[in-house]
Amino acid sequence: MNIMHLFPTTVYSTEYKDSMEEERKFIDGLEYDQSGDGSGNKKSKDTYILGRPELSRINAFIKSRLKDFLENGMKVKDELMITQSWVNRSEKGTKHTEHRHPNSMISGVFYFTKTEDTPIVFLKRDNWGIVFDFDTISKENARSAVFKAVPGALIMFPSSLNHAVPTNVSDDIRISLSFNTFAKNFLGDKKSLTYVQLNNSND
Known about the structure:
By secondary structure, this protein is α+β, with helices and mostly antiparallel strands. The protein has one domain: q2cbj1_9rhob like domain (Jelly Rolls), CATH 2.60.120.620. The protein has helices at residues 21-28, 56-73, and strands at residues 12-15, 32-34, 42-44, 80-90, 96-99, 106-111, 120-123, 144-147, 153-158, 163-165, 174-183, 186-187, 196-197.
């Protein structure tokens, strides 16, 4: 008998080890807007935040880990660029409802604070419409997976993967940085007739 696991979803997790004291001061001084989704979360007005010089070290770290994720985690040749990036500020009583990130290929979240009760939760969605009574919950049958919010943690995942954050029940503010990506120069390959040029060159 052979049991095979087909088409796994790859999620990348790593940790930034350097001090974030100066970056945190910058984050705390940002201007924020309500997210607009009714969750109560606040989002930085600057939605290209990784382009700011104050976050240059974290930007370099994220880009290097994104390259590693693509090359070693997903085994792809395509080069991705970060499109938009923003800071989330989640106070007591707020949450992130289940969602995904359209017009993006790989998305990520980087944590500045630790909040025990508000991890990121990834959710499996399929078309079965059937619920089984499992003897044991495992990676083969689980409907969700939880990653804790730890300062310096970076988690990257396919942008089509549904995820959510439960209600923050503590007095601690949950602060994270999210970003999206897309192909930088081209997508696909010419031999399979899937090639798309993404700059102005006709070469």
